Amino acid sequence: MVGTSAEGARRACRESKVLAVGAGGIGCELLKTLVLSGFEDITLIDMDTIEISNLNRQFLFRKKHVGQSKAEMAREAALKIAPNAKINAFHGNVKGEKFDVDFFKSFDVVLNGLDNLDARRHVNRMTLAAGVPLVESGTAGYNGQVTVHRKGETECFECQPKPVPKQYPVCTIRNTPDKPIHCIVWSKDLLFPGLFGEPTQASQENGAGEENGAGGEEKDLEISTRQPGQSARDYGATVLGEVYHDAIARLASLEDMWKERDPPKPLDSSLITAGLGKVAKASSAGGPRGAAGESASHVLGLTNSHAVWTVEESVAVFVLTIEILLEHHAAKIGMLGFDKDFDLSVDFVAAASNLRSFCYGIPQQSKFDVKGLAGNIIHAIATTNAIISGLIVLEAQKVLLKQFSDVMTTFVQHNPTRGRLLQRIPPQKPNPKCYVCSKAMVRLEIDVKKMTLGQLVDEVLCKSLAFKHPTVLVGPTMHFESGNDLEDDEVLHYGKQRKKILADLPGGPIAHNALVQVEDYSQDMSVEILVQHKVFEDEGSAEFFAVHGEVKGREEGEEGGGDEEGGDSDDDDLCVVVAEGEGAKRNDAEEGEGERESKKQKTLM
Ligand SMILES: Nc1ncnc2c1ncn2[C@@H]1O[C@H](COP(=O)(O)OP(=O)(O)OP(=O)(O)O)[C@@H](O)[C@H]1O
Ligand SMILES: [Zn+2]
User: How many domains does the chain divide into?
Assistant: First the structure.
């Protein structure tokens, strides 16, 4: 380490209290590196249990640990390396009530090995509130980064805009797909939950379950329910015909839609017959039929996940998956959602999306690629996690030794820049437009005549601005409070408030130019929001509001004046992620290297 006596570093490790959040790919490497570097007082939090798919890189875990707490098993494994270390393990959500500001204050440094923005933003706020330095990290395949955040001295985790997750126009997904990902999103978010689960928020946003939802030229899929006495396989074949023949034929007949592009082609009955033949052959061969969780592709002998199935094979997988789900997983029907670790759901989405792609003349994908795109998986590289965890410990040591001028942001890259795979830059200064660490004002564009208080709280404050328990005030009027300590009558009152339209709220409407105070005691956050009325054209779109960071003091002179609704302000003005939702995870994988290389501050998951 630069300019550090070895003894000083050893003492810093030995005597410091560190909190490591996440015991997954990075977290396992990190815990091992911490104990091998001489850290002796470590607290570890992870909310998850171990899954088979973790074992290839989360090397502290073994097959026998599957189903057990990651934090506790990681602790046990690390104690075998360093029996004298004091390791506290918490199996829980870092957003839980017991991990409050005082809890965070009890550490000298916090180290993140998380995989989602929501938890990262929460930890960012807690470390700011507690005044404890944070070493933040992320990896995506061969790429990774480590950043150090110190209140008032460096940017915080939320100072820079995070990539806005891509959302697809509803009508592209429902009627006019032109890329494999469009068909995958449709299968995963509309068809699969439509058949086997509760429609997800994404499916509702995409118009599933509505008669002629927003933006759709074609009525929703009409899928029959299973008739009494109908076999599961017959039902699967019926669904197949309705989805890929009848609905496509109906859509193709809407001539106005196909002036600019080719109409889709319904699935030919000979292909359906051939596919059903494969199912019959596989089951007459007497092989096991999914009873023990076996997937349809396996039963059909399609074991190479990198191969692209023929259309007949997709037909067979589609029908057999329905059969296996109905026959062997009946208890889960109505509750299923896409899960990359549940092979039947991957089979279904692979087959369903490829059949749709075939109808639309879109190239088909292997099951492996569909799984990656559907689960937004950039395959993890254990070595990247190891490099990143080493860098986390190096930066943590500098912080603990107060060698702040040596602290660096490091990017681990797939391709070398000027011969280097690690690119290092000094930490950035805090962004004065950041509402989190610089207390900047937030300018919020919403349709105050349509948005309810509940939507403001759920979609804008909690989802987009990452508040946990927001309180909403206009002047002296308290419109909304949340948290675990509310009385029953308050819960009832605020439940009613949630349904009210913002502009109609009594005692201080949230209308154009209203100044709203939002506080969250659990995160020690307080933010002023200047509301600007804006009508959003595409009602079906997930983007029904926009958030901008403003340096305080600018807003007064602008009232009703020069800002022209502030509508088209350029991206540099953005200080906050807009509308991060379920769909968020969808297609980061699609963004590709170029985008990532050009945005050095982008956070990798
Ligand atoms: N809010 C949270 N509180 C506590 N732990 C969290 C929270 N959010 C995420 N984590 C943990 O962070 C870890 C991130 O690790 P990683 O990125 O390797 O994900 P994973 O779930 O283990 O792997 P994969 O997503 O590839 O299956 C996970 O173990 C996860 O449980
Ligand atoms: Zn900030």
Answer: 3
Give the ligand at the shortest distance from the Cα of 380.
1
- DSSP single-letter state for residue 576: S
Question: Mind listing the pLDDT tens digit for each residue in 481-495?
Answer: 988 888 999 999 999
Q: Mark whether 455 and 563 lie in a shared domain.
A: yes
pLDDT digit string (tens) for 337-386? 899 889 999 999 999 999 999 999 999 999 999 999 998 777 889 999 99
On whether residue 605 sits in a domain, the answer given is no
Q: What are phi and psi of 423, to 5 degrees?
A: -110, 130
Looking at the structure, do residues 210 and 91 belong to the same domain, yes or no? no
Q: Domain holding 332: CATH number?
A: 1.10.10.520
397 and 497 inside one domain: no
Helices (runs of H) and strands (runs of E) counted in the chain = 21, 14
Any ligand 1 atom below 6 A from CB of 550: no
Do 192 and 282 lie in a common domain? Answer: yes
Q: Are residues 337 and 390 part of one domain?
A: no
For ligand 1, say whether the CB of 205 is within 6 Å of any of its atoms. no
Would the CB of 520 count as within 6 Å of ligand 1?
no
Q: Smallest Cα–Cα separation from 101: which of 116, 122, 87?
A: 122
Among this protein's residues, is 171 annotated catalytic? Answer: yes
Residues 140 and 267 in one domain: no
Ligand 1: nearest atom to the Cα of 122: 1
Q: Is residue 540 part of a domain?
A: yes
Structure tokens at 159: 């100072």
- As beta bridge partners, residue 417 has 420
* The two structure tokens encoding residue 87: 């390791």
**CB–CB of 307/354 below 8 Å?**
no
Residue 147 has pLDDT above 90, yes or no: yes
Of 28, 48, 379, the residue with max ligand 1 atoms within 8 A of its CB, to mutate for a pocket test, comes to 48
23 ligand 1 Cβ < 6 A: yes
User: Looking at the domain assignment, is residue 170 inside a domain?
Assistant: no
Residue 544's pLDDT band (cuts 50, 70, 90): confident
**Same domain (yes/no): 144, 182:** no
Distance 24 CA to ligand 1 centre (A): 5
Q: Does the beta carbon of 213 sit less than 6 angstroms from any atom of ligand 1?
A: no
Distance in Å, CA 165 to ligand 2 centroid: 20
Taking the C-alpha atoms of residue 497 and residue 474, their distance in angstroms, rounded to an integer, is 14
Q: Of 28, 171, 183, 359, which residue is the catalytic one? A: 171
56 lines ligand 1 (CB under 6 A): no
Is there a single domain that holds both residue 67 and residue 148?
yes
CB-based contacts of 355: which residues, under 8 Å, 6+ apart?
Answer: 240, 243, 244, 267, 311, 314, 315, 318
Q: Whose CA is nearest to atom 21 of ligand 1?
A: 24
> Whole domain around residue 192: which residue ranges?
178-361
pLDDT value at 122 more than 90: yes
pLDDT of 571 reads 31
**How confident is the model at residue 556, as a pLDDT?**
36
User: 450 exposed, middle or buried (CB, 10 Å; 0-12, 13-18, 19+)?
Assistant: middle
Here the ipTM equals: 0.97
CATH code where residue 416 lies: 3.40.50.720
Q: What is the pLDDT of residue 539?
A: 53
CATH number for the domain including 454?
Answer: 3.10.290.20
Q: Give 156 Cα–ligand 2 centroid separation in angstroms.
A: 4
Phi, psi torsion values for 293, nearest 5 degrees:
85, 10
pLDDT, tens only, 262-280: 999 999 999 999 999 999 9
Is residue 604 domain-resident? no
Dist. CA 223 → ligand 2 center (Å): 49
Work out the mean pLDDT of the chain and round it to a whole number.
Answer: 85
Q: Whose CA is nearest to atom 29 of ligand 1?
A: 24
| Nearest-atom index, ligand 1, CA of 51 | 27
